[in-house]
Design a protein that fits this description.
The protein is mainly α. The protein folds into two domains: about 90 residues, no CATH class; about 220 residues, MetI-like (MetI-like fold), CATH 1.10.3720.10. The chain contains 13 helices and two strands, in the order H-H-H-H-E-E-H-H-H-H-H-H-H-H-H. Strand 1 and strand 2 form a beta hairpin. The longest helix is centred in the middle third of the chain and has 36 residues. The radius of gyration is 24 Å and the shape is globular. The C terminus is likely disordered. Pfam families: BPD_transp_1.
Length: about 325
């Protein structure tokens, strides 16, 4: 079988997986909404169930498509999706595509910054812990990292708010702008303080797996024959790290980060909810609580693609790593 044929078959398999994942995600969300006790009409009027009744309520139910079955909703969404339309949010009274575009900007900034920062800090700390595994401080930091891996991110966020936002008043409690001020009127520099606490909280939850995995990988590579040979020839620690450890430990850390896109996304949802951060995660929560089917399906569709891209990149890197290790 030629290389082009193998590449084409892999692409077809990946696309098939993506389609299956999207279908399963849409089916699950639609069924959960159908079984949800939330009244979309009541949520449409901010919890006032008596705001509309009688014939007007029936008209509103038909207008919002709430009289459709779960299967009909899923078919309508799929049909609209094939024509490039994600639907219309009856909670925000805007097209779903516009809402996702507006809210995803802040989420992308937060997740990209947290992903890059956690990878750099996590890999650096894991490298140091792996280079000196028998040191007392190394064991202490390893146990601290294990604790970090067990602490939920929402608890970390609440602690940071109580200490740095309420007691010390160093950073804002939440949001991306002061009350009554449009975020679009502020510069990125003026918004930066609002990103600090959410960024630290998200990094806290992402760093621990990278630190622990990098530490074990560095210890494993340090005991390999080629590193032992380099030490016998008097190479310094800096040379060993540069020519041996970085080549064999950095890519696995990157694979973990890419494969953890689902944890990054779920962590962002929690952090945005805790800090009242106007991103796609908070919008997803509001869509679920209000029973906004078009918005919830549209965000789920985009999130599924995001996670698939991360898993695909991680798979490509891991295959490249296994191939390089075999030579």
């Amino acid at each position: 079988m030629s290389i082009n044929t193998q590449h084409s078959s892999r692409v077809c398999v990946s696309l098939t997986r993506l389609v299956i994942q999207l279908c399963l995600a849409l089916v699950m969300i639609t069924l959960l909404l159908a079984l949800s006790p939330i009244d979309p009409i009541s949520a449409y009027f901010d919890g006032n169930a008596l705001a509309v009744f009688g014939e007007r309520k029936i008209q509103l139910i038909e207008q919002l498509g709430l009289n459709q079955t779960a299967l009909e909703r899923m078919i309508d969404f799929t049909t609209s999706l094939l024509s490039g339309d994600l639907g219309y949010s009856y909670h925000y009274q805007e097209p779903v595509s516009e809402i996702i575009w507006q809210r995803s900007r802040y989420s992308i900034m937060l997740m990209a910054s947290a992903s890059a920062l956690s990878l750099i800090l996590g890999y650096t700390m894991g490298l140091l812990l792996g280079l000196f595994p028998t040191k007392k401080w190394s064991n202490v930091f390893t146990h601290i990292t294990l604790m970090m891996n067990a602490i939920p991110s929402f608890w970390v966020g609440l602690i940071l708010i109580s200490v740095f936002a309420i007691k010390l008043v160093w950073f804002p409690i939440g949001g991306v702008s002061p009350l009554g001020i449009d975020p679009e009127s502020l510069s990125l520099y003026e918004k930066a303080p609002y990103f600090v606490l959410p960024l630290v909280t998200l990094c806290f939850s992402l760093m621990a797996p990278i630190i622990l995995h990098t530490r074990e990988k560095v210890i494993e590579v340090s005991h390999s024959q080629h590193v032992q040979y380099a030490r016998l020839h008097g190479q310094s620690i800096f040379s060993i790290v540069r020519y041996h450890l970085l080549r064999n430990t950095l890519v696995p850390a990157l694979v973990i980060q890419l494969a953890g896109f689902s944890e990054l996304l779920s962590g962002s949802v929690i952090v945005e909810t805790v800090f009242n951060f106007p991103g796609i995660g908070q919008t997803l929560v509001k869509a679920g609580l209000s029973g906004d089917t078009p918005l919830l399906l549209g965000i789920t569709f985009c999130c599924a693609i995001f996670v698939f891209i991360g898993n695909a990149l991680a798979s490509l890197l891991s295959k490249r790593l296994s191939l390089s290790a075999s030579f």
